[in-house]
Every structure is written in structure tokens, then in C-alpha cells.
Design a protein that fits this description.
The complex is a heterodimer of chains A (165) and B (176). Chain A has 165 residues and is mostly helical. Helix content of chain A is 72%, strand content 0%. Chain A folds into 3 domains: 34 residues; 60 residues, Orthogonal Bundle (Helicase, Ruva Protein, domain 3); 54 residues. Chain A is built from 6 helices and no strands. The longest helix of chain A is centred in the last third of the chain and has 32 residues. The longest helix of chain B is centred in the first third of the chain and has 22 residues. By secondary structure, chain B is α/β, with parallel strands linked by helices. Chain B contains 5 helices and 7 strands. The chains are: A mainly alpha (165), B alpha/beta (176).
Chain lengths: 165, 176
């Protein structure tokens, strides 16, 4: 026997370790793509409610625009720096304005936006009630009093008599 | 008569609102930075990369910050105007070279002319985010106290220059 058992094991170990080399290289490259799943999840939740200013009908989470890439990167960095969600949103609003939010905040300038539809509905409801009440009054006016009924009956009877003659 | 006029009137009000809406440009998002201090920066020069420019250097004068890049097609439209404005000496223009490659940027300036007092480099777009940049070119007018007074989104045009930017600069320069 030219080789002992330890020699075989050494060779096997070497082969095994050399197999790991490309694997470690691969994992190192993959890190920036996969990112930290916890950070990624928070970033996605935040960007779902943020408007991409370049492609205005898309949230930043769905957008492939360069702008959205930058904002996503910025948010990732801020999450890593232990900023709260509120702080990150405020950071973006300070720079891009309320327009970046899909949910506009309640302020004097957005009051009509928030309560306009409700106000219009209430106005329409009041108009409807007023209209219906007026109509009921009109219908009641048509109902005849006792004397009027008798008079009408007398007139009809007279006509009948006249026709019979 | 009123019965028929009222819906007509309501319709006309609605139509007027929609008509005004048609003339608005949804890409022009009002910047929250107007009348706020211009975000501070420390950035390397484009021509001499080892030199650093600080935004504080411009305190005490009215200046323009133009965000540009060699990959930006619309920048080519406004560029001759900026070159002309720089030649007139009315206001110094500083160029923020946004997410660009140094050599192509330098070549671009050689080819189309260099209107910038200093060009500074924002390689990763960080200062761009601070300034709320979302579509290059964008141009800021900053007063003597370092307050942003105007933001032009998209290329500077003859119209915007004559009607808005130049009168504003004149007014700002008279302030102490």
C-alpha cells in the first residue's frame, strides 16, 4: 500500500475543500443582490405607498426607474442606520413634498380632498330631502275638501242628467 | 327656468375646472424646498478631482445650480442658453454633474461648451436626493443667504429665462 488511510482522507478533504472555493465566491457576489431580507421587507412595505416621481402612476416598490433605484437604496441605508419609518418618510417628504405620498396627509390644503366628497354627498342628501318634502306638500294640496267633493259630485250629476235628456 | 339653468351652471363650473386641469403639467411637482435653505454639500470638482467645493462658498452671492449629466438628452437643449447666460456674466452658474462618468462628462463640456463657474461631481446621486432631483435637467436659483428661491424642472427655455429666472435674479441681487 503506497497510500495510507490518512493520505486518502487528506486528498478527499482537499477535493472537498476545493469544491467549496467557487461556492464561497458565489455567495460573496450574491450578497448585494439578495440583501438582508428583514431590511428588504421593511423597504418594500415603505415604498409600496410612495410614488415614483418619474413614472407617476407606479409605486417606487414596482418601478425600475433610476429614480426609484436611488430611493430604494437610500431607504435601505437609512433602515441600516436605525431610522424609524416615520423619520424615513419625513426625510423624503422634506425633499420631494407630499406628492411622493400616495396617502396625502390631512392639512389645510388637503381638506377639500379629504372631505369634499363627503360634503358633496351631504349637500346632495339635503337637496333630496328638501325636494321630497316640497313634493309631498304639493301632492297634499291636490286633495280636495268635503265641500269641493260635493260640488264636484253635483257637477258630475248635472252633466249626467243633461246627457240623459 | 331656474330648474334648467342650475344644472347647466354646475356643469360649466365643472368643465372650467377640468379645462384648467388640462393645461397643468403633472410632471411639474412643486418643490417643498422653495424658500428653504439650500441643502449643504461638500463635493469634488469635476475638472480638478482633488479640490472640494462647499456650498457655503457661495454665501453672499446669488447663484444658479444646474443639475446636468452627459447621458441627459434634454440637457443638450438648454445648454446653449446656459453658455450664453454665463457669457453675459449676469449670474454665476454652478454645475452639479449628476450620476455621470468623469471622462464622458469632460468630453461633453468640451463639445457643447462649459458655462459653469465650477462643476462638481455627485457620483451616487446623494446630493441629488437632498435637492429633490428627480428629472435632469433641473436648475435652482439660490439667493445671498443660501435660500432656494426657484426651481426649474426640465430644461431652461428662453421663455422661462426671460419671464421668471432673470427678473428674479435681478430682484435678489438688489437685496443685501
Amino acid at each position: 500500500m503506497a497510500y495510507g488511510l490518512t493520505d486518502v482522507m487528506k486528498v478527499l478533504l482537499l477535493v472537498f475543500l476545493s469544491l467549496l472555493i467557487p461556492l464561497s465566491g458565489w455567495t460573496k457576489e450574491a450578497i448585494p443582490v439578495a440583501e438582508d431580507p428583514v431590511i428588504e421587507k421593511r423597504m418594500l412595505a415603505l415604498t409600496m405607498d410612495l410614488r415614483c416621481l418619474v413614472c407617476q402612476n407606479e409605486p417606487i416598490s414596482d418601478s425600475r426607474a433610476e429614480f426609484s433605484n436611488d430611493i430604494r437604496r437610500e431607504i435601505r441605508e437609512q433602515i441600516k442606520a436605525n431610522k424609524t419609518d416615520e423619520e424615513i418618510i419625513q426625510f423624503l417628504v422634506d425633499r420631494y413634498g407630499d406628492f411622493i405620498l400616495y396617502n396625502p396627509p390631512m392639512k389645510p390644503t388637503t381638506i377639500f380632498l379629504w372631505f369634499g366628497p363627503v360634503a358633496l354627498f351631504v349637500i346632495a342628501l339635503i337637496a333630496l330631502i328638501v325636494h321630497l318634502k316640497r313634493r309631498r306638500v304639493q301632492i297634499e294640496e291636490v286633495t280636495l275638501s268635503h265641500e269641493q267633493l260635493e260640488q264636484a259630485e253635483a257637477l258630475l250629476n248635472e252633466e249626467k242628467k243633461g246627457k240623459n235628456v | 327656468m331656474m330648474r334648467y339653468l342650475l344644472p347647466l351652471f354646475a356643469f360649466m363650473v365643472l368643465a372650467a375646472f377640468l379645462l384648467v386641469g388640462l393645461t397643468l403639467n403633472p410632471r411639474q411637482v412643486p418643490s417643498p424646498l422653495i424658500d428653504k435653505p439650500a441643502p449643504k454639500f461638500q463635493l469634488n470638482h469635476l475638472h480638478e478631482p482633488d479640490k472640494v467645493m462647499s456650498s457655503d462658498e457661495n454665501l453672499g452671492k446669488v447663484w444658479m445650480l444646474n443639475v446636468w449629466a452627459s447621458w441627459c438628452v434634454a440637457c443638450r437643449d438648454e445648454h446653449p442658453l446656459l453658455v450664453q447666460l454665463a457669457k453675459s456674466g449676469i449670474v454665476p452658474i454652478y454645475g452639479l454633474n449628476y450620476k455621470d462618468e468623469r471622462n464622458t462628462a469632460l468630453q461633453w463640456l468640451k463639445r457643447y461648451g462649459d458655462p459653469y463657474a465650477i462643476s462638481i461631481v455627485d457620483l451616487d446621486g446623494k446630493v441629488g436626493i437632498d435637492y429633490g432631483v428627480y428629472g435632469v435637467p433641473e436648475t435652482y436659483v439660490i439667493d445671498k443667504k443660501g435660500i432656494i428661491k426657484h426651481k426649474q424642472i426640465g430644461p431652461v427655455t428662453v421663455d422661462s429665462l426671460e419671464k421668471t429666472i432673470l427678473p428674479l435674479i435681478k430682484e435678489l441681487q438688489q437685496q443685501t
